[in-house]
Transcriptional regulator (Nocardioides baekrokdamisoli), 135 residues
Amino acid sequence: MVTSKVGMAVGSLGDYLKEQRVGAKLSLRQLADQAGVSNPYLSQIERGLRKPSAEVLQQIAKALRISAEQVYIRAGILSVEEEFGGSVEVAVLGDARLTERQKQSLLDVYASFLAQNTANPIAEAQTAAPLEGEN
């Protein structure tokens, strides 16, 4: 069931954010104000009822003074491997100049190239080789 995977990621995210908020000695209202989100919306995130965008997660992480990448991992946006080896994903998600739709489109295209290259190692080797006349 697809929703259970998303629900578990969102639930653990909410628990994590609440734990961080309580540790920072911030009320729900204080964190909502600092992150620029509504109090009810933040409450829904903490209770696992909403899955926020990467941009909202970045705002919350900034307000909590914690790593946005750690929050992305808790939200299921990044895996642990991507945090250390996936600078492309981190860069795209962290770029405030892009809209959420643009970020998702870029990540989708990037993922499709990776999948294509994994499925066809010959194509990957050919794209890694310099083009004729290049040095």
Q: What stands out?
A: The chain has one domain: 2-127. Residues 2-23 form the longest helix (22 residues). The CA atoms of residues 61 and 67 lie 6 Å apart.
